[in-house]
């Protein structure tokens, strides 16, 4: 598993007040679990439900994490984090329901799966959230929305669980989550594609492939870190690279043309948001 950027202990995670069931320990669920354990969550309170857990997840049994324990052996579940694929949720839900009680906090990170569907199929008090994979290094951002019946304490628990992997924003309007998913949930893939295509374009411009790949990766990573650390907005950082009449201006004339980045990203984000809405059906 990847190292977290920082690992301050979270008092809230050390006092969850009962068992936590993680349903689906794949890329996203695994990243969240890494963050929780790094910030002091007691592995003995965690139960992972996953038909084929990875070796990394299996290794967490050394920290007390229980894997695929029967609901009857787990006892009361204070919190359930649902990170199965939306397409497998309907099949998984009956088993998950057996772990949840009427006062269980159910936090879902599934794309396109409404609070109403979660409440109907699992029960409990539902928080719907959309994280992203930089969560694996503590640099994610999550947007969350709580059902009306979520108590302030449950909301604080959900906030602590999600904040263990980066920033958290709360919204009141669930319909915003489709656009959130399209921007920050899926967004890392757009950035990684930029690194891929920058490398490919470097090869087209005459660079050896290995050097082009190294340059593109370092450029995307370094620019992201600069954006993270700088107080300047992205437009100013862009302008700081752009000498009048220079090379960057020549490239930006292409990227900022009428058929450049803006319409392309607008279409891409709209397609992702549309898909999120479709998954709800
Ligand atoms: N990846 C991302 O960037 C993000 C993902 N999400 C959401 O997170 C969720 C998981 O995505 P991701 O981690 O990428 O997908 P993964 O396929 O990596 O993880 C899903 C995990 O759930 C397991 N699983 C399958 N069926 C069940 C079941 N019945 N009970 C318990 N676990 C089961 C899968 O096992 P197996 O592989 O054996 O089928 C797998 O380990 C999705 O709903 C997605 O929308 C949200 C934000 C970002
Ligand atoms: O592609 C997906 O559907 C998930 C949700 C956001 C990122 N990955």
Automatic annotation (TrEMBL):
One of its GO terms (molecular function) is pyrroline-5-carboxylate reductase activity. It is found in: Cytoplasm. One of its GO terms (cellular component) is cytoplasm. Signal peptide: none annotated. NADP(+) binds at residues 83-86. It catalyses: L-proline + NAD(+) = (S)-1-pyrroline-5-carboxylate + NADH + 2 H(+); L-proline + NADP(+) = (S)-1-pyrroline-5-carboxylate + NADPH + 2 H(+). Its EC number is 1.5.1.2. The keyword Oxidoreductase applies. Pathway: Amino-acid biosynthesis; L-proline biosynthesis; L-proline from L-glutamate 5-semialdehyde: step 1/1. Its main location: cytoplasm. Residues 174-279 form the Pyrroline-5-carboxylate reductase dimerisation domain. It is an enzyme of class 1 (oxidoreductase). One of its GO terms (biological process) is L-proline biosynthetic process. Belongs to the pyrroline-5-carboxylate reductase family. HAMAP family: P5C_reductase (MF_01925). NCBIfam families: proC. Catalyzes the reduction of 1-pyrroline-5-carboxylate (PCA) to L-proline. This is Pyrroline-5-carboxylate reductase. It comes from Rhodopseudomonas palustris (strain HaA2).
């Amino acid at each position: 598993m990847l190292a977290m950027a920082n690992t301050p202990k979270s008092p809230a995670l050390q006092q969850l007040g009962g068992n936590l069931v993680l349903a689906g320990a794949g890329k996203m669920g695994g990243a969240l679990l890494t963050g929780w354990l790094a910030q002091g969550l007691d592995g003995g309170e965690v139960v992972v439900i996953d038909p084929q857990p990875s070796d990394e997840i299996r290794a967490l049994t050394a920290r007390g994490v229980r894997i695929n324990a029967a609901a009857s052996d787990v006892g009361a579940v204070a919190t359930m984090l649902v990170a199965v694929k939306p397409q497998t949720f309907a099949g998984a839900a009956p088993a998950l329901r057996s772990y949840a009680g009427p006062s269980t906090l159910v936090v879902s990170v599934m794309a396109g799966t409404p609070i109403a569907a979660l409440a109907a199929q699992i029960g409990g008090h539902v928080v719907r959230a959309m994280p992203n994979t930089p969560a694996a290094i503590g640099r994610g951002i999550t947007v969350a929305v709580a059902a009306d019946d979520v108590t302030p304490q449950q909301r604080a628990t959900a906030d602590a669980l999600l904040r263990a992997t980066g920033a958290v924003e709360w919204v009141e309007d669930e319909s915003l989550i489709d656009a959130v998913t399209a921007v920050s949930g899926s967004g890392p893939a757009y950035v990684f594609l930029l690194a891929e295509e920058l490398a490919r374009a470097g090869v087209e411009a005459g660079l050896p492939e290995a050097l082009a790949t190294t340059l593109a990766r370092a450029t995307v990573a370094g620019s992201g870190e600069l954006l993270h650390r700088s107080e300047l907005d992205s437009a100013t950082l862009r302008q700081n690279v752009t000498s009048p009449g220079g090379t960057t201006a020549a490239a930006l004339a292409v990227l900022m043309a009428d058929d450049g980045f803006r319409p392309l990203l607008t279409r891409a984000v709209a397609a992702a948001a549309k898909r999120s809405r479709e998954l709800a059906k």
